[in-house]
Amino acid sequence: MTANTLEFAGHFITSAISHMGYLGVLVLMAIESACIPIPSEVIMTFSGYLVFLGRFKLEWVALTGALGCNAGSIVAYGVGAAGGRPLVEKYGRYVWLSRQDLELADRWFARYGDWAVFFARLLPVVRTFIALPAGIARMNFLRFNVYTFLGSLPWCWTLAWAGLKLGTNWDALFPYFKRFDKIFVAACIVVLAGLVWHRWRERI
Q1: pTM for this structure?
Q2: Considering its fold, how many domains does the chain have in total?
Q3: 3-state DSSP helix/strand/coil percent for the chain, to nearest 5?
């Protein structure tokens, strides 16, 4: 995302949340999770700034963001389940979904199965599109929602907390988002290694 596009998205996001409150957070996060890549980093850090101002509560911001992720992901899951990959490939470009994005999500789902939905929610880019291959694979719907929510909650909480701590300088996070991404990746690798070890121990 270019600097100008990010600036435009930032103005749109801050205006929507300022006017709509928690509902704005929910709607914007739902849009992001429905494969329309507006930056959740901006949504949640600005919401954290509003926590700093006393307008929001941190726990409600995180919960609202995660519920928005769930709502949007259900839409993407439905698209994948109803139309399969041909539909996604045909119309994905209209919501800026590139073939590379879809292939990345496919690789995650093929490699980690249902757990990919949880882990991908902790990562940029792939988190936006992981619901599509889950829908195409007809993943158990209840499990899909549980993993989506549990993966989305720490993502939303961490970004909102960062916005709270930075206060009026919340937008100073923009240059550092890639560094945060690496932290999330490292955390996912640790958790995944723990799960693999646990399953291996159970089979012994």
Answers
A1: 0.72
A2: 1
A3: 85, 0, 15
